[in-house]
Amino acid sequence: MGRAYLAWRVAHERHRVQVLQRRGVPHAWRREALVVAAVQWDMRPVGSVSDWTARLVLQCDQATRAGAALIVFPEYVGLSLLGLLSEHRILRRASAGQLSPTEVGTRLKAWAPTLVPLYRTVFSRLAAAYGVTVVAGSTLVQQAGHLQNLAHVFAPDGRLVATQPKLHLLATEASWGVVPGTSLAPIAGPLPVQPVVCYDASFFETYRMARVNGAELVAVPIADPEPDYGEAKARRGAWARTQESGLVSVVGAGTGELYGITFTGKAAVYAPLAESPARDGVLAESPHPDGEGVVVATIDLDRLQAYRQQLPTPRADRVASWLAPRYRALGRLMEDERAGPPPAGL
Amino acid sequence: MHHHARTLLGPPPARGLSAARVVVTRLDTLSYWRGDHLPGTWGPSSDFIVLDLAHMPARPQTARWADGAQVPTLVAARQPDGDSRRADLYDGRGRQVASLGQTHRAPGDAEPARLSDAVQVLDLAGHAVGVLLGDDVLVPEVSRTLTLMGAELLLAVAAPHLPPYLGIWRESQQNQVIGFGGGAPPALTVPCEADAQGTGFLSLEYLGDWVRATLPWGALAPVGEATLLQQLNPRAYLDRPWWSP
Lengths: 346, 245
Hints:
The structure holds two protein chains of two kinds. By secondary structure, chain A is an alpha/beta fold.
């Protein structure tokens, strides 16, 4: 299934990651002028580990030259490493659409234990080398026998301080056998940043929970499998949630082609309308939904904290009586759906 | 149980309605006070009427007007004695059959006389309609509740002025329902997947102070193929209930 070949390629090239050296002192950051960066990343497969690492270094160089203390990469940034299998027949079959979703899921599950340690090592070294917080996008990880789409947060000393599974899946992911997470992890690391993965930002509930967690920023790695980028569709997720919640969104976006899937999206930093210079809710946004680059913005967390006081607050007693019982009922219905019909005779 | 789950979370039930049902709303209050009438051909072909006014008229006057219109009429406006908004529903014979209040307000608003504690889905000529009054359109918990209660159409009335991509458009997207905003400008919204242009905004017909929206019930069918509501994750929400003090 390509597993042994992939392990051989990774083992053969892993030493190249060691060359990542410290490139500066850890970035000091201030609440009133926090610089954040979002990476737009071409998802195309890489030919070698050093190719992948060199591209990541380029993005980090650009972000930290602008003073960024936080860098957010896109969803599935680790899947570019599947290029290590490009000579293998299994990927030729996948590109030709000859694998069923279940087969794709089986392969991804088999490859994850080899790719994930490499992904974690590289991003840990990048965070430490630049002395910044890195939301390393996400990659597929085997958790308790299941695949999960997991975002990773590395502190400026290189420690992996938080992971966050995607809570709301696209149909394609579900068909691969990916399972959704069951909770929003607490915030960890020096910055008040909550990672949430792509489609999670289409649900107001995610940002409400992030605010309970103490988040002031939400890092949103995305990789939208949408060949035709549209302004309106792009405003439905992180941008809309920022307007509702007053939390800044830092969106790392995947673009380009990966084995027959076309991704579009713009790296961006979104703020409430009233707190953006053009009153459009955009602090920084890539000009194009394809290609690669970094966008950077400076935000004042104290000012945004004051702004959030002006937003209507959901009435706790009403939400508890309106929504909580409906969520409980929905949860029971979904459990029943998964369990299937009861055996005859019961 | 399985059928119930699909009914609750899947595409909206067809209810046997065509795509030609309409709502009519008022652009401003001037014509109302002049005693103007609905455009001649619109009244009889409408399913219900929404009057989104600046100030609530006297109830007997509205009842007479609604009696003349002969279809259910929802009147939404600020109360004359305060900052709270109400929506009163009259049947086709001019009888008041429901009265709704706003449930939330922005901190900057003057204290309303009273906030309503309840939301309800109205049956307007066979349509399951949830009403978002005033600042309620800014609180996504209200529209999510109404959607999970079965609303197929969310009506935002007496709402604050909001730029495109906010207000009813946003609620239409995240609940995958038809939305109609009676403010200035009025807006008819659907999930982007249900609009050939991909914007989620549909066109309206204007005639003087009146505007008519044709509700595209059939357009929601494709949305059901990738429905957002089926991906709700109640276990995660209950794990970290943001509504708890």
